[in-house]
Amino acid sequence: MSALEKYRDKWREVPGGDDTDGRVFSTGLLGLPDEEFLATWNGMAERRASGAMAWFGPLYRDFFAGKRILEIGSGAGVDGIPMAALGAHWTFADIVPTNLETIRRVASLKGIEATFHLIGEDLSFDALTAGYDAILVVGSIHHVPYDIARREALNALRLLKVGGRWIELVYPRERWIREGSMSFDKWGERTDGVRTPWVEWYGMEKIRQRLHPATFKTVLDFDLRSRDQRWVDLEYLGMGRDTRKFVEIPGPVIFEAGERDGLNFTGPKGAFHPIARVDLIPFVDALTGPYEIDVVVAVKHGVIGIGLTDEENNHLPDSELVLDSSPDTQTLTLRFAGRPKHLVFRNRHEDRQSNFTIQHITLREAA
Ligand SMILES: C[S@@+](CC[C@H](N)C(=O)[O-])C[C@H]1O[C@@H](n2cnc3c(N)ncnc32)[C@H](O)[C@@H]1O
Predict the structure, then answer these.
(1) pLDDT beyond 80 at 157
(2) Fold designation for 246-365
(3) pLDDT score recorded for residue 193
(4) Residues 306, 344: contact at Cβ < 8 Å?
(5) Which residue ranges make up each domain of the chain?
């Protein structure tokens, strides 16, 4: 069986409009006579445009008009066709031939011009002409495992202009936790119905990591539908340093308060109580700034903050990321343009102790 086969098999079914409208098989749609086919599709597009995604048209139609947009995982085309009708030069790309056939037939019946690309096993987009102004990914490549999605995303990114946009709808980690922290091969059935082979959570950092070494500026990053979905819109700044030096920081960790067992810490109550810190100075000198610090940490109880101090050892409140306890190990990235002195772990709950294990700290040159 080819690597994409099971995903192709599932995704012959596409959203029937709004999220509450269930799924429609593109093969079923294609079996309808023209008039019924178009009426069914128009109904789906109307429900989409007036449902939970109603903001999408007003937000993007002027920006997309006259521009070249590549949509990866275009389903039945309910987002792209209305934009193409308003003057966007749209390319529909998908792994399922009948989904693309559906859109091709809609476009032809409506007299709309568009480009189509069937994504093959090589996950290549090379058949398309580079120079796209935006790549739109609405709930699609999160349905294949991270390594496949990364290869596919980086292939597509070669077509994006510097200054263009990477726009994506994903399911956030909070939802994965709320729905039971299940393995990604099980979670898909819960989020997208029977036979869904995979769905994986993403947030801003994980999207950036998946597209590394490309660099981006955040344009939008917001929750949708009570944090069931997240919308991320990034401006592409170009490829960053691909030979970035990094150091794995073995410690030593300076212990401040609470209890310590190796790299497991129990921090005392208090919203700003320092628990432990790491002296970064010996490591910073080996690299060229600006810097990024990846911290892999498991927070079992309470709430902790992980932040930086500057060269004078002043705490930088803007650098601090606050983490709740959770069932999984979390990776977070701190960024600082200057020379950081200490990486600081603090308790961040007035009435609760915290317990956490530091698993890994990597200081790297930012892209
Ligand atoms: C949940 S549907 C979303 C469709 C459309 N974006 C929408 O919001 O209505 C997922 C779509 O992504 C496609 N898809 C799944 N995995 C993909 C991948 N790795 N690359 C491109 N498309 C993919 C499916 O064939 C399907 O059309």
Answers:
(1) yes
(2) Jelly Rolls (2.60.120)
(3) 94
(4) yes
(5) 5-239, 246-365
Please check the confidence at residue 1 and state whether its pLDDT lies above 70.
no
* For ligand 1, mutation pick of 95, 98, 116 (most atoms within 8 Å of CB): 95
Distance 272 CA to ligand 1 centre (A): 44
Distance between CA atoms of 128 and 3, rounded to whole angstroms?
A: 22
Burial 239-266 (b: 16+ CB within 10 A, else e): beeeeeebbebeeebeebbbeeeeeebb
Q: Is the dihedral of CA 335, 338, 341, 344 positive or negative?
A: negative
Ligand 1 center from residue 261 Cα (angstroms)? 47
Ligand 1 atom at shortest distance from the alpha carbon of 48: 9
Ligand 1, atom 8, lies closest to the CA of 138
Q: Which of 143, 150, 189 to mutate to test the pocket of ligand 1 (most atoms within 8 A of CB)?
A: 143
Rounded CA gap, 361 and 295, in Å? 5
Q: Which CATH architecture has domain 5-239?
A: 3-Layer(aba) Sandwich (3.40)
List the beta bridge partners of residue 134: 69, 165
Confidence band, pLDDT 50/70/90 cuts, at residue 352? very high
The answer to whether residues 83 and 55 touch, using CB atoms and an 8 Å cutoff, is no
The pLDDT tens digits of the residues spanning 34-43 come to 999 999 999 9
Q: Average pLDDT for residues 110-134, to the nearest whole number?
A: 98
Buried b (16+ CB within 10 A) or exposed e, 304-334: bbbbbbeeeeebbeebbeebebeeeebeebb
Domains 5-239 and 246-365 share a fold: no
